[in-house]
Amino acid sequence: MIRFFLSAVTLLVLSPGAHPQQEIRFGVLGLFHPHELALHQDGRDVLSIKGGTSAFIINGEPGHHHLLFHAEGDHVIAAGISASQWTATARDASPVPFQLAVPNRIHRTYCGRLTITTDRGELIAVISMDRETAVASIIAAEMPSDAPIEALKAQAVATRSFLASGPRHREYDFCDTTHCQFLRSPPAADSSAARAVRATRDMMLTYRDKPVAAMYSSRCGGQTHSLSDIGLDPGDAYPYYSVTCAYCRAHPLPWQSRIDSTHAAPTAGSETQRIVAARQWGWSAVPGNDFAIVRENDTWLITGRSAGHGVGMCQAGAIGLARAGSDFRAILAH
User: Fold this and answer.
1) How far apart are CA 291 and CA 286, in angstroms?
2) Residue 92: pLDDT band by 50, 70, 90 thresholds?
C-alpha cells in the first residue's frame, strides 16, 4: 500500500490483493421510465435468461434472437411467462456482454449480470459489473475520446474514488445519470479510456482514511468552488477548495438563455436551486452555477461561463493541464 499526499487528500495505491475487486450495481435506463425492455446479444456470447422456474437462451438462432420484457403489475412478463424477477448472465452465471433497449427510444451495450424487476408499473434494470468495467464505461461517457491520457487517468482515479465511497440508492448502488455517474457502453480494450483505467488500477483518493466521493464538472469558468460556495454543508466530508483554473480563464465558453419572467428568477451560487431551476426549465437554461441574471421585458436573461457545479476537478481544466505537461497526480493535486 503506497500513499501520495495531495494537499488534504491522499492518493492511495492499494497493493495487489489488499482490496478485493468490487462489484457495482448500476440502475440503467431509468430516466426513460420503461414499461418495455428488449434484450439482445452483443457479439456471439450466449445469454442465459432465467425467471422463476423458467429459462431461455439467446444464441442468435431462429427464434432466439432477442427477448422482450414488459411490466404487468408487480411482475415482469417475458415470452408470456410471469416472474417477479428475471436475470441474464453467461451460461456459467458469469458477466456477459449484451444490448439492452427501450424499444424505439434508445439501446446501449453493457457487460455484466442483468436483473429486471418492476416497481409501480415500470421496469427496473440493474446491471452488476466489476468496478474497473464501470470506471472505464464512465470515463468513456464523461471525457472526450481524444483527451490526453494523463487527464483520463485523473478522471479514472476520481471516478473510482466516487464508486468506492458507498452507494447512493436503495435498490442499487448508483444510477447511470449525472445524479451519480454518467454511465454508457464500455470502451474498447485498446481505447485511451481503457488504458487509463489499467494504468491507475486500485488507485483512489481518500480523506481521513475513507474514499472521497470525488466531484468533478465540465467547465468551472476559471475558478473552482468549495462546497460552501454553492450552498452545501460539507459536514465531515472533504470540503474541497476554490482554485484558479488557467485553462477555463483562457478559454471561456459563455452561454446565454432566457426564461419566462413570470417565474421566480434562479439564484446564482446555490447548486440546490440550480437543479430545481434546471428541472423546471431544462438543463440548457442554467447549465452552470456562475451566472448573472437581468430582467428584459417579460423574460429573465441569464448569462454564464461555467457548466456544472464547479466543485472538485474541472474536466476541461484537467485536459488543459495534461496538454501543458502535468501528469495525473499533479492534476489531482491542483
Assistant:
1) 8
2) very high
CB atoms within 10 A of CB 119: 11
Q: How does pLDDT run across 283-306, given as a tens digit for each residue?
A: 888 898 888 999 988 888 999 999
233-284: pLDDT as tens digits: 888 888 899 999 999 999 988 999 998 888 778 888 888 888 888 888 888 8
Residue 333's pLDDT band, with cuts at 50, 70 and 90, is very high
- Given the DSSP bridges, would you call strands 86-89 and 47-51 parallel, antiparallel or unpaired? antiparallel
pLDDT on residue 2:
52
Count CA atoms within 13 Å of residue 193 on its CB side: 21
Spatial contact of 12 and 206, defined as CB atoms under 8 Å apart: yes
Instruction: Please name every residue paired with 124 in a beta bridge, in sequence order, or none if there are none.
Output: 117
Give yes or no for a contact between 11 and 4, defined as CB atoms under 8 angstroms apart: yes
Distance, CA of 3 to CA of 10 (rounded, Å): 6
Q: Per-residue confidence at 17, pLDDT binned at 50, 70, 90?
A: very low
Q: What's the CA gap between 267 and 291, in Å, rounded?
A: 9
Which sign, positive or negative, has the C-alpha torsion 310, 312, 315, 316?
Answer: positive
**CB distance 203 to 12 below 8 Å:** yes
Joined grid coordinates for residue 318: 484537467
pTM of the model: 0.90
Neighbours of 202 (CB within 10 A): 17
The candidate with the shortest Cα–Cα distance to 26, out of 159, 204, 188, is 159
Alpha helices per DSSP H over the chain? 131-142, 149-164, 192-199, 246-250, 271-281, 315-323, 328-333
- 334 Cβ partners below 8 Å, 6+ apart? 243, 317, 321, 326
Distance of alpha carbon 246 from alpha carbon 323, whole angstroms: 12
